[in-house]
């Protein structure tokens, strides 16, 4: 089984991210997501839609200036979590 990494750095592609997660899970892949920059604006909605289909972390440094104190269902982290996802993923898609 392989791991798909998804980097979400925009708030414009919610449906596309969900579609890729669903397709990857259906194909039997693990999915890890890191959310940063304007992507944090989608964080709570995205995590609610994804549920347990993916491991999600977000950049707290990106979230705080946008007034986001927490993204439920995601680990508050830093670029370390992004680097870890990149290292562990077999392929990475960026939105």
List the helices and strands and how they pair.
Blueprint (H helix, E strand, L loop, with lengths): L2 E6 L5 H13 L3 E6 L7 H8 L4 E5 H4 L11 E3 L1 H10 L2 E4 L1
Parallel strand pairs: 1-2, 1-5, 2-3, 3-4
Give a quick summary of the entry.
The chain is α/β, with parallel strands linked by helices and 95 residues long.
Descriptive key words:
single chain, 95 residues, alpha/beta, Hypothetical Protein Ychn, Chain: A, 5-stranded parallel sheet, 4 helices, 5 strands
- CATH class reads Alpha Beta
Strand order of the largest sheet: 4-3-2-1-5
Query: Which fold name fills CATH's third level, the topology?
Result: Hypothetical Protein Ychn, Chain: A
Can you tell me the number of structural domains?
A: 1
| Cα radius of gyration in angstroms | 12 Å
User: For this structure, what is the CATH homologous superfamily?
Assistant: DsrEFH-like
Total of helices: 4
Order of helices and strands: EHEHEHEHE
What does this structure look like?
With 95 residues, the protein is an alpha/beta fold. The chain has four helices and five strands, in the order βαβαβαβαβ. A five-stranded parallel β-sheet has the order 4-3-2-1-5, with helices on both faces. Strand 1, helix 1 and strand 2 form a beta-alpha-beta unit. 36% of the residues are buried. The model has no long low-confidence stretch (mean pLDDT 96).
